[in-house]
Amino acid sequence: MNFENILFEENENIGYITINRPNKLNALNKATIAELNEAFESAREDHDIKVVILSGSGEKAFVAGADISEFADFSAEEGRRLAAEGQEKLFNVVANFPKPVIAAVNGFALGGGLELAMSAHFRIASDNARMGLPEVSLGVIPGYGGTQRLPQLVGKGKAMEMIMTAGMIDAKEALEYRLVNHVTAPEDLIPLAEKIAAKIMNNSMTAIAAAIKAVNANYEAGVNGFEVEIDEFGSSFGTEDFKEGTSAFLNKRKANFSGK
Fold first, then answer.
1. How many CB atoms lie within 10 A of CB 192?
2. Could you read off the pLDDT of 223-242 as tens digits, one per residue?
3. Known active-site residue 115
């Protein structure tokens, strides 16, 4: 599969999706969002892929933001459509992806870049990472889920401060506020993501998909997360993985999950 703005490959059950516009600090434009959508849909259909690692190429940036030149002259209605289409095509796709998505944040993750990282199921960062939502310095607000996901992750007060000041935080502070789960040296970032992915893949991928759905339900307006959990818990009993997992436990052997 050939892309102009991203790299996409599979190796040992891990899908690697890398934004590849280093001369633009991997800024998101419409073409890149469309390609990311296509890559995630391919990863969804590829049964060999169990975990996705999302990263940016080069040493300077994960994604340094959106490509401002594309929307600098937009009208209010065009701005609404830009946000709605972006959330539908990419950010909500990542957040609700049925396979674990790990964002490996290297360098700058600003604006749409931090919003993309926050869409992932969790984040790890290099110790040179810098994160922020600078949109108000441009006279606009975060439009790809930033005002919603940042408070969920770091709390309302810290989110308000980050958004209002348009400032950046470093990896240490991001770890302190639980915006990221781990911080490591740049050269160890992808190996750490792979190590975590390997631990995930020891488990039932059908159960993990159900857990993703149940956890996300807690953040959906009008949805009772406990009811979703009950439904997903019950459905698990009808899977081959449940039968294999319980049999392996009772017979003191390692489970061999089929993902069904």
1. 19
2. 999 999 999 999 999 999 99
3. yes
